[in-house]
Design a protein that fits this description.
Mean pLDDT of chain A: 85
Structural class of chain A: mainly alpha
CATH topology of the largest domain in chain B: Rossmann fold
Largest sheet of chain A: 2 strands, antiparallel
Shape of chain A: globular
Strand order of the largest sheet of chain A: 1-2
Helix content of chain A: 55-70%
Order of helices and strands of chain B: HEEEEHEEHEHHHEHEHEEHEHEEHEH
Strand content of chain B: 25-35%
Number of domains of chain A: 1
CATH class of the largest domain in chain B: Alpha Beta
Low-confidence stretches of chain B: 1-18, 327-331
Number of strands of chain B: 15
Oligomer: heterodimer
Number of strands of chain A: 2
CATH architecture of the largest domain in chain B: 3-Layer(aba) Sandwich
Number of domains of chain B: 2
Radius of gyration of chain A: 21 Å
Number of helices of chain B: 12
Order of helices and strands of chain A: HHHHHHHHEEHHH
Bound molecules: adenosine-5'-diphosphate, magnesium ion
Chain lengths: ~300, ~325
């Protein structure tokens, strides 16, 4: 990729010519950003039964948590803050408990499998060659694919939180929320905090999406790509657990996921862990997206 | 270089294309080459597909047809060489040119869990030059054109190979095209489907669409093509208007008669060459002589003709004579 293409990519998101053709853009008809391709991409993701099943599994966790707590109240475990024991006080904690549980495996797996399918899936089916022959510029294809994955990530997280809040409010009611700092937050503030947490987690998982997009651009095997992404993620978890490597920990993309607890303090500090987490994710997204572009823009499409 | 392999180019149009000349070519390539590791799949080919032609891109399996088509569409980068589509250099002009090109590359490929119609809608949605307001109508028209309307709502995975092939053809019909690149479009079709596809190609060609028809079927070239290019292990070994290639093949006249010697004498008088006689036959190479004239001369000379045939060697013989090999798979 030429420097000009990189610059164009950064500026508009849907620029450039295919592969080596950066400079000659030619007289182009006045093209408005066309949402049809993105819509089609979303339809592909959200219209697929496999993905419906995945989302149903994600949504089932808050239901299971809420019902389990309702049936068998764990009671307050003395002193220490515990989302599970807080549920009976405030239904919003069902959403928090579900997010805490699912960020460990379910949500990353969902994001890994969707993102690794992006390019590799189309290559595997052979539909990639027909899309490129339409033609879809490779830069545009990558941008649309990534946008769709990020939207999926937000939807998945909001689904978990939304189902959690609804079932929680239905079974345990709302009311004020006790923050990690010991203060009391109003119901409205509580909901707002949960939405902030959703946004933060979506940004963190978007870094995983970018890794998935890159891996997806390397292969024609979507399953293999998904496994590779999950291995990368677990490796990051493991490295994060090895104390002698503590100098490395801030650079691991999984290291910052639990930074979302910052949003439960009063007042919220957007500096420190939250800022570090967002910067880390942004760096991973920039690097992996660029790598995906570098790989995909020059790749021979031979199946 | 590879000129030796391309000695039989005869189209006046081919070598040293001037810019005025390349205007008249829908596809023009110079020394297009693709190497996969050590294997040279396409070896320095100079394609010249005139606008308005139906160009039969003929070659056995593995001869490099699909690789050439991928190169033409810029799906893969050439190891060396350049090419232009519709007078514009590729890949620079890809986003301007490719919307005017419909392509079928190495068989159909669609999303299995979407219906045929939804698959077409997706391709149309990806096309920035397509008008969303007319999408529905164009999709229906394309489905109709290939006879798939009845199965439009079925999932692609439930399609037979022939239906899949038709859907891929429908995708090439979503927009008006100036050039169609069709890679073995009749693969997997039943005889009825094959006939329909061939008549579709003929109809489109009549409307002025240029067609590059890759095929391993000699009969297909004979039935629908005006031009032919012959691929053989990555080389374009011949390229010419079909009529010109035919003219180069030697036709023989065969007279079945009680009096072969008298017939042979007449053939000799008519300047036929390589005359041979059999028990009840006389035969000779026709050359430039009109068959009608030979028959008239035979009747005039009172030769009792029981049957008169002219046998043109078919394209297969021609192919063998061009490549020195049979029409089989090349590695
Ligand atoms: N991606 C690839 N990697 C390595 N070799 C390839 C690849 N694609 C095609 N080939 C080789 O190139 C040659 C030409 O193949 P192809 O263009 O598909 O022939 P055709 O379409 O005429 O049957 C074959 O020998 C094939 O094995
Ligand atoms: Mg082929």
């Amino acid at each position: 990729m030429s420097a000009a293409e990189k610059a164009a990519l950064r500026e508009s998101g849907t620029p450039g010519e295919t592969s080596a053709a950066a400079s000659a853009s030619g007289p182009r008809s006045q093209r408005l950003p066309n949402p049809r391709f993105l819509r089609s991409e979303l339809w592909l993701i959200f219209g697929r039964r496999r993905n419906w099943a995945g989302l149903a599994v994600l949504a089932s966790v808050p239901l299971i948590i809420a019902i389990a707590v309702k049936i068998n109240n764990p009671g307050s475990a003395g002193g220490e803050f515990n989302v599970f024991s807080s549920i009976t006080d405030n239904g919003l904690f069902v959403a928090l408990a579900a997010l805490t549980v699912e960020i460990q495996l379910f949500l990353p797996i969902a994001v890994a499998s969707i993102s690794s399918d992006a390019i590799a899936g189309e290559a595997n089916l052979g539909t990639l060659r027909y899309l490129l022959a339409v033609p879809v510029l490779r830069s545009r294809m990558l941008a649309v694919k990534f946008t769709a994955i990020v939207i999926f990530t937000f939807v998945a997280i909001l689904l978990v939180a939304g189902v959690g809040m609804l079932i929680g409010l239905a079974l345990f009611g709302g009311g004020s929320m006790v923050s990690l700092s010991g203060t009391s937050l109003s119901f409205g503030t509580g909901v707002w905090r949960i939405l902030l947490i959703c946004g933060y987690l979506a940004i963190e998982l978007s870094a995983l999406s970018a890794i998935g997009l890159f891996v997806s651009s390397l292969t024609e095997q979507p399953i293999g790509a998904a496994i590779a992404v999950i291995i990368i993620m677990i490796m990051s978890f493991i490295l994060d657990q090895i104390p002698p490597l503590d100098w490395l920990h801030p650079y691991l993309f999984t290291h910052h996921w639990y930074g979302f607890t910052e949003f439960l303090r009063d007042p919220v500090s957007f500096g420190g862990p939250v800022r570090d987490g967002v910067l880390n994710a942004a760096a991973y997204i920039a690097v992996c997206y660029s790598a995906a572009w570098a790989r995909f823009s020059g790749r021979d499409v031979t199946n | 270089m590879t000129t030796a392999a391309r000695t039989t180019e005869v189209a006046p149009a081919v070598a040293g294309a001037t810019s005025a000349h390349s205007e008249r070519l829908a596809i023009a390539s110079q020394g297009l080459t693709k190497r996969f590791g050590r294997q040279v799949a396409v070896n320095g080919i100079d394609l010249a597909v005139p606008r308005g032609s139906v160009y039969g891109f003929l070659g056995p399996n593995g001869s490099g047809k699909t690789t050439t088509i991928r190169l033409l569409l810029s799906l893969i980068r050439p190891t060396s060489g350049t090419h232009a589509l519709l007078g514009r250099s590729m890949p620079q002009a890809a986003s301007a040119v490719l919307p005017r090109v419909g392509a079928l590359v190495e068989g159909p490929a669609f999303h299995p869990y979407l219906s045929g119609r939804d698959n077409l809608c997706r391709l149309d949605a990806a096309d920035r030059t397509a008008d969303p307001a007319t999408a529905r109508r164009r999709v229906e028209a394309a489905l109709d054109r290939v006879g798939l309307l009845a199965a439009a709502r079925k999932r692609y995975r439930a399609y037979s190979l022939g239906m899949r092939q038709r859907l891929a053809l429908a995708a090439t019909q979503l927009m008006p095209r100036e050039l169609l690149v069709l890679d073995e479009p009749t693969n997997g079709l039943d005889p009825q489907g094959t006939r329909e596809v061939r008549s579709l190609i003929t109809n489109l060609a009549e409307d002025g669409t240029t067609v590059l028809l890759s095929t391993h079927l000699l009969s297909e070239v004979e039935q629908v093509c005006t031009h032919v290019g012959v691929m053989h292990v990555g080389h374009l070994v011949a390229q010419a208007p079909l009529a010109e290639l035919r003219a180069r093949t030697v036709a023989r006249a065969v007279v079945t008669t009680r009096c072969p010697d008298e017939a042979a004498e007449v053939l000799r008088q008519q300047h036929l060459t390589e005359i041979a006689t059999g028990k009840d036959q006389a035969a000779g190479v026709i050359g430039q002589v009109a068959p009608e004239q030979i028959v008239e001369a035979l009747v005039h000379a009172g030769v009792p003709v029981r049957a008169f045939t002219t046998a043109t060697p078919d394209l297969e013989d021609m192919f063998v004579s061009l490549t020195g090999r049979g029409f089989d798979v090349s590695g």
